């Protein structure tokens, strides 16, 4: 059985730094992506970046809330 965790991330779309996942000392996660925040492109890119960061398939990363917000919650597992 795999561990399922909920993570809250701050999304930075249109970033030259992306794709990049940064975790601060206090556990806050910021994801930088090159895609713009239109038509879900940035959200999809964040899912891909999180999957790579946590070492899980893209199908195991699910958006829980914040589809149109810069702060999103994902279920990883």
Automatic annotation (TrEMBL):
It comes from the Bacteria. GO terms for cellular component: cytoplasm. SUPFAM superfamilies: YggU-like. It holds the Pfam family DUF167. Signal peptide: none annotated. Transmembrane segments: none annotated. Belongs to the UPF0235 family. This is UPF0235 protein GM1_031_00260. It comes from Gordonia malaquae NBRC 108250.
């Amino acid at each position: 059985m795999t561990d399922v965790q909920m993570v809250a991330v701050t999304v930075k779309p249109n970033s030259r730094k992306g794709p990049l996942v940064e975790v601060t000392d206090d556990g806050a996660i910021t994801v930088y992506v090159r895609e713009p925040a239109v038509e879900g492109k940035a959200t999809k890119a964040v899912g891909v970046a999180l999957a790579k960061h946590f070492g899980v398939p893209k199908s195991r990363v699910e958006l829980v809330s914040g589809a149109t917000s810069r702060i999103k919650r994902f279920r990883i597992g």
